[in-house]
Structure formats: C-alpha cells, structure tokens
Write a structure and sequence with these properties.
The complex is a heterodimer of chains A (380) and B (202). With 380 residues, chain A is of the alpha/beta class. Chain A has ten helices and 14 strands. The longest helix of chain A is centred in the last third of the chain and has 16 residues. Chain B has a seven-stranded mixed beta sheet, sandwiched between helices. The chains are: A alpha/beta (380), B alpha/beta (202).
Amino acid sequence: MNDSEAEAVTHEEGEVGIVAHADFVSKAPFEFESGGTIPELTLRYETYGRLNKEKSNAILICHALTGDHHCAGVYDMTERKQGWWNFMVGPGKPIDTRKYFIICSNVLGGCQGSTGPRSINPETGERYDLDFPKLTVRDMVKAQSLLLDALGLDRLHAVMGGSMGGMQTLQWAIDFPQRVGRYIALACCARHNAQAIAFNDTGRQAIMRDPARLQGKYESEAPPAHGLSVARMMAHITYLSDVGMEARFGRKRQGEESGREHFEVEFEVESYLRYQGQQFVSRFDANSYLYLTKALDRFDLHGAGGSLDATLTAVEAPGLVVGFGSDWLYPPQANREVVEALLRLGKAASYAELALDAGHDSFLLRAPKLDQLIRTFLDR
Amino acid sequence: MNPHSKKRQVDFQVIARWVNAGDRVLDLGCGRGILLESLMQKQSVYGVGVDIELDKIISCVKRGVSAYHGDVHAVLENFGDASFDRVILSRSVDLLEQPDATLTEALRVGKHVTVGFVNHGFWRNRLSFLSHGRRVENEVYPKKWYESQPTNPFSINEFDSFCAASGIQIMDREYLQGNWRDECRLCPGLMAGYAIYNLTKA
C-alpha cells in the first residue's frame, strides 16, 4: 500500500569527509544557574557546510550524554570511526550540508574539549573537580548561546538533538524563542521519571564507591575505572531494548565451555557490555559523568510550580518531537507529554512515533522514516 | 487527481463554511492534512491533526500542519472542556472503536463538532446488498472486505437516532447526493450518499 505522498525519493549522498574541531574561548566569567561562576569558558565544536550570506541556514545539533561535538566526518583518512550522526549529516543526507551550516559543540561540563570538572581553573591552576559549579541543562544551552554570539549567528534555522540533546533543544526553544526557527527533539522528555533517576544514581554510586575515585581528585592516569565502566554497562542496557538485545545476542555463548572459569565471560552480551564499559573509561571522565547525569536528573520542565504548560508558554518556534516505541528510558508517553502541552497552548508542534527496535538509541540508527521526517521538517 | 479526491472537495467546502476565521480546530483522523492546510491558509485557523498512521503524519509535517501521531480517542483527554472551537471527524467515525465515547469526548473538548460520513442507507448501498448479496464496492470502497480495515458502517437514520438518544443537538446538516457533489434535498435517508452534521452539546 502506498497511501503516502511522502515520495520514496532516493537522495544522492556524499560524505562530509575530513573535519577538524575548533575551540571557542570566552574570557568573561560564566555564571551558572546555581549561582556558581567560572572565570572563563571553552567550548570545542565542529561545523559542516557553509553559512549563507543571509546567515539563515544554521542548524545547531545538541549531543546526548556521552556524545560529543564530532557528529560527522572523520579526522583523517585512516580513521574508520565516523562522527556519531554521520548517516544524518552530510551532502544529500537528511541534514544536508549542501543547504545548511551545521554546528555541534561539546557541552559545558563535558570532557571532550569543553570546560568541565577536569579542566584547570585558571585562577587556582588546579583542576575544578568537585569545585566545578552545579550544572544544569540550562547552563549548557547558555554556553552554546555564547558560541553562537561569537559566530555572529542571531538566529538558527533549527535546533535539534536526541536524548540529552533533545532536552537541550527544548531548553533552547524556551530560553531563546527569538533565536530558534524550528526545533526537533528526539527520544526526549520534560523530566526524568523515578526509574531514570534510579538508574542514574546507581551509576553514580558505582563511581563514587570506587576506592580509586579519591573524592573526585583522582589523577587522569588512575581514574575510578571500575565504577565508571559499571555505570556505563548499566546505562548502556537502558539505551537498548529487550527485543533488540535478544535479536543481537540472545543466549549466544563465546569460547569453549571446557576450561572456562565459572564467572568468566560466557555469554556474548556479557562480553559486549564489558567491552563497552572499558571503552568508555578510555574516552570519558568520571566527574563529568557525575555532573552530567545529575544535570539530567534535575532537568524539570514542569518547574517549581509543577506546570509543564507554564514553562512551555515561552516557546514560539514550530517543533517536531519524535518518540520511539521501544524506548523505555524516555518512553513515548514522555515525548508525547511535551507535544500535548504545546498543543494545549496553541503552539505549532507535531509528534511522531517510530516503531523501531533499538530502544532509546533508536535515534542513533538509520531508519528511512526518521530520515524522511527530519528532512521534511527541516526543508519545509 | 483521482475521482476520490474530487469527491472530497464538496464536503470540505461544507466543513469550511462552519469554521470561523481564527478558530481553534482539531481534526480527528486528519489524514494527510489537506483539510487543515486549507483551513489554515484561507481562514487562519489554529489547526491540529491527529492520525494513527505515520505516513499521514509525515505528509502533515510536509504541509506545515501540526500533527499528533496517536489514537484519536486517547488524545482527547489531554484537552480541557471547550478548548477547541471545533472538532472535526471527517469520514473517521466509522473507524472508531467506541463511536459514542469518542463523540462524547469530542463534544466536551470542542464547542462544536463536525461529523462527515458516508450514508450506508443510500439506496445504491441498499440495492447492492439486496441484489448482489454483498457490500458496496465503488471508488470510495474499492477494497474487498478481507483486505480493508475494520469499519463500522452506519446510516443517516441511525446517526439521527443516536444524536436524539445521546442528547446531541444537531445545529445544521447538509446532505450530498450519491455523486458527493450536488446537494440532496429529498428524502436524505434514502437519497443522500454523504452527510455532514454540525453538532453541539444540548
């Protein structure tokens, strides 16, 4: 049945190719929502495509909790690993670099080049560690707005992102209604439910109870690796779905039964998660993980007054929210709730739900309908 | 343009006539958003469409029509009493799981409700069953029973008695002939192929 007018056009696709990051440095003190300040701020970012003369084609992509500013391309020709949204960003791709100028920055509080807990405080010459101010999603967005100021961008064609990126996207639409032309929030929510907080805190506890943590003052060569990898393993499960894990791993075993110690890796899923945990330690900082997950837990668009509608009143741009059927971390109803409130308020907003098996991480996997939705909404 | 889409034009005109400029309009079973797009452009309404099919939602997004992907009944509980000037069910009532419950909710959320439906009491539809012993097959219902989605066909007479029994006030109604183009004035229960009702709570 082809009941859709949404034509199955095939788009000639290319790659953004070799990219390089840049650093934005603000020498002015940055004040956090909590009242804390840092004397200066660095945001590492990448851009793809060209800004047009009218400066009307900029799209800001916000990354998820453990993502970074490298969302497309490679750093050199020998590198096999592409940016985390490479299938989405590029010439002819849904976020088309022939039409749009795309910016993606590592969040404030992160550990991939932007100022975070492991950065050196220029006033003391020491790492911030736990002296880093309490961080919120709103702080991340405010820091990004300074980057846009520096790039001379008053207004964005669009802001978009999934998961924590979706939360930043919603915060952008609320805090900077004049600067946002439209927005797309994927696999997002207005606030964490008890289950999401519970998982995050269990992850934080794994880190904080690791003896190597040393109250956050560990040396970079000796991080609380056990705690951080366990936190990652558990969080990773919440990004997948039971159906997806079953299809990928099932009860598949690896290695020979004979000679295997009883608690050694036996099932493939164990091996996969342990590998994910270990990999994570090599690229992510434990203090950043604590700060960022806490910022997510405290994110609450229902606000002190408990009214999501009151918070969303500020939104002016038309929005698209996409939920994923198998996402049990930020389930469809958490995404729907945002659009329901927007529609009550008379805002232009759409909700689409995709029946994909990849759980919360569905937005990170290529799916024709997701491509179509994003392309359609951006190009309109 | 297929004959089916031509058929839609007259009932859209009737539906549009009952919509005031600037109204808040909720279209339950909005399809590709063609009606809402036209109401938004010509009458500057605030429009929201609801549909259960993803492809329809994508078409709405393409048209710039706000669309909510989900169940038309479940969505209603999110809206306050009389929060829309008009709720439209255009050719979607026969697809509802609980027509009475959804219409009651629609009348709570909307100050007015427009219902457009195929009259299965139309003489041709009656004749089809009488003479061939099978349900209608035409350009509106091109598919065999076993390949079409479950529908709950009803007639003008049945809808009238439902409104009377449920205390629903019929403000206006328009009947179209079997061609869905010309007005039907005579004996609509038998002669009308399509009916459009403007309803409100009594």
